[in-house]
Amino acid sequence: KNLGNQANVNFQSLGKSASGKEIFGLQIGEDKNPAIAILAGIDGKYIHGADLALRLAEALAKEKEVLKTASFYIIPVVSPDAYLGYFSKIKKRNPLNHTSFDNDRDGRMNEDPFEDLNKDGVITMMRVEDETGHYKMLDKYESVMVKAKVEEGEKGTHRLLTEGLDNDQDGVWNEDGEGGVNINHNFPYQFPSFKSASGNYAASETETRDLLDFLFDQWNIHTTISFGPANSLMHPWKHNAAKAKQRIVSSIQEADEKVYQQISKIYKEKISQKEAPKVSSSGGDFNQWAYFHYGRFSYSTPAWWVPKIELDTAAKAPKPDLDNETVRFIEWAKKENIANAFIPWENFTHPDFPNHKVEIGGVNTMLSTVPPYDKMDEIEKEHLEFVTAVANMLPQIHLKNIKTEKMGSGLTRLSLEVYNAGLLPTGTEIGQRTRWVRKPKVELLLNANQQCISGRPIQVLKIIKGDESVHLTWLIQGNGSIKVKAGSAICGFDEQQISLK
């Protein structure tokens, strides 16, 4: 509502989710400016991303200086079905939309959902005593289960399963419940065919297609930032020469790596949280698609993760292993007095395991990826500083050092510099291969009495790096004035009216 009163904000509907929920987007700023796309709610486990995206939208709409040269496209909830699942009666991490999908591909749908067996309102885990299992209790911290390291002489003592029943008796628990596709596994780049929750084919979901259609129409998008599981801002992608030359490219290009390092450095300076866990992008995810197929600089961050904590060194009790993410979360939640972060293990008589000890409990995963709400003001402040810093670095094309020389016989030599006043290049190296990024173009607009004798009246330039320029020269016959126009949607335009000698 606050944004609706802003003259520089435009709301629009991108489409609807599988259940018919509207997917909204907004544009802040003008089409003529290079843009940053900010997306959240692609993966339903990170609901704070939607809140952060809306907070950034409200703040950026007031950044009048930034909006003179940059614009923003903000889509706070790409997958509304998955987002709303967080608020369901029975709490469970469920990043799926409402497409009916046969996840286990047995010809039936939704026949093996999660069940809240202990009636505590949260779907957690089951640990089943079984020497054929691959999990064991963590030394000195028996409430946490870890995979046994066979190579180090360890043996498993338990099976670890999600809470529920094996309704279809196929030996797998809760693999085919309500909902079907994780939108963050449904994008075309390295699409995980025949994998659970990925969809029947790439971009099979209306949410995915509507988002792709929208983005392909916005030629001025230079950079995308998504709030989700991967963290390419704290752990920037690295160039691999062999993978970068494959027919299906699976590494960023060498020149692009320098930009990723540059932006990562800024993120680390702006964000007070350090020691982020390294989470790689998965196949079919938005973050990789936006770079490898869409050809834009693409960054992802969860925006928050369980922070490092300092334990009481004077305490006599054995110190837990904080390198284990589950232990780190439990200890942090204790320190922050967060209730129900860990559900204590309790015995349960399970019909699927009549001769085994079964316990239900474990980490409340609804809380392990989402910050306490009182942290959001600081998260917003730091990410606003980061986003505005990147926006101020976007490429800006200007025509500089314009010079005309009279050559005789009605001829004028015209020379100038096409200068990128920004600190980021006018496009990605991968964009040269995908051919979906418009390169800077320089055009002489001649009248009927003028002729270009030497030099091309229309030229398409290669990437211009930040704070660099390209020198051009022409020989023009005629008199009067001539207009020169340069730029592209992704790096802005400049035009100059020049008098001939």
Encode the helix/strand succession as letters.
EEEHEHEEEEHEHHHEHEEHHEEHEEEEEE
- Strand % is 25-35%
- Rounded mean pLDDT is 91
* Weakly predicted, low-confidence segments: none
**What's the gyration radius in Å?**
28 Å
Report strand order across the widest sheet: 1-2-4-3-9-10
Largest sheet: number of strands, sense, barrel closure? 6 strands, mixed
Shape descriptor reads elongated
Strand elements, count: 20
Distance between the termini: 56 Å
- Secondary structure tally, helices: 10
What percent of residues adopt helix (DSSP H or I)?
10-25%
Helix and strand composition category: alpha+beta
Topology of this structure?
Layout: E1 9-16, E2 22-28, E3 35-39, H1 48-60, E4 71-75, H2 80-85, E5 125-129, E6 135-138, E7 141-147, E8 158-162, H3 206-217, E9 221-227, H4 241-244, H5 254-270, H6 286-292, E10 297-301, H7 325-335, E11 342-347, E12 358-363, H8 365-368, H9 376-391, E13 397-408, E14 411-420, H10 429-434, E15 441-445, E16 451-454, E17 458-460, E18 469-477, E19 481-488, E20 492-499
Parallel strand pairs: 3-4, 3-9, 9-10
Antiparallel strand pairs: 1-2, 2-4, 5-8, 5-12, 6-7, 11-12, 13-14, 14-18, 15-17, 15-19, 16-18, 19-20
Helix pairs in contact: 1-9, 5-9
Describe this structure in words.
The longest helix has 17 residues, at 254-270. The protein starts with 8 loop residues before the first strand and ends with a strand. The strands form five sheets. A six-stranded mixed sheet has the order 1-2-4-3-9-10, sandwiched between helices. A four-stranded antiparallel sheet has the order 8-5-12-11. Strands 13-14-18-16 form a four-stranded antiparallel sheet, with no helix packed on it. The model has no long low-confidence stretch (mean pLDDT 91). The chain is built from ten helices and 20 strands. Helix 5 (254-270) crosses helix 9 (376-391). It has helices spanning 48-60, 80-85, 206-217, 241-244, 254-270, 286-292, 325-335, 365-368, 376-391, 429-434; strands spanning 9-16, 22-28, 35-39, 71-75, 125-129, 135-138, 141-147, 158-162, 221-227, 297-301, 342-347, 358-363, 397-408, 411-420, 441-445, 451-454, 458-460, 469-477, 481-488, 492-499. With 501 residues, it is α+β, with helices and mostly antiparallel strands. Helix content is 19%, strand content 26%.
